[in-house]
Write a structure and sequence with these properties.
Structural class: mainly alpha
Order of helices and strands: HH
Number of strands: 0
Radius of gyration: 28 Å
Strand content: under 5%
Distance between the termini: 94 Å
Shape: rod-shaped
Length: about 70
């Protein structure tokens, strides 16, 4: 009779064939998601680096202030 209606075999979808989606792509875990995760990790690493630099500068200023108070 007719084929089942699922993502890889849409009945009544004219206009050519539809790309077969892998299980990961059907769950929104495709290669594009890996790139999104990599970009997010890069942004987080940059933010952490900036925060550590600021903390290091603030810590350095406290040390010089402590040294002056001890003198």
């Amino acid at each position: 009779m007719t084929d089942s209606k699922n993502i890889n075999n849409p009945v009544g979808q004219g206009g050519g064939q539809r790309k077969k989606l892998s299980r990961a792509e059907r769950q929104n875990n495709g290669p594009h998601r890996n790139l999104d995760r990599k970009n997010a990790a890069d942004q987080k690493a940059e933010l952490v680096r900036k925060m550590r630099e600021k903390a290091g500068v603030a810590e350095g200023a406290e040390r010089t202030g402590d040294d002056a108070a001890q003198s």
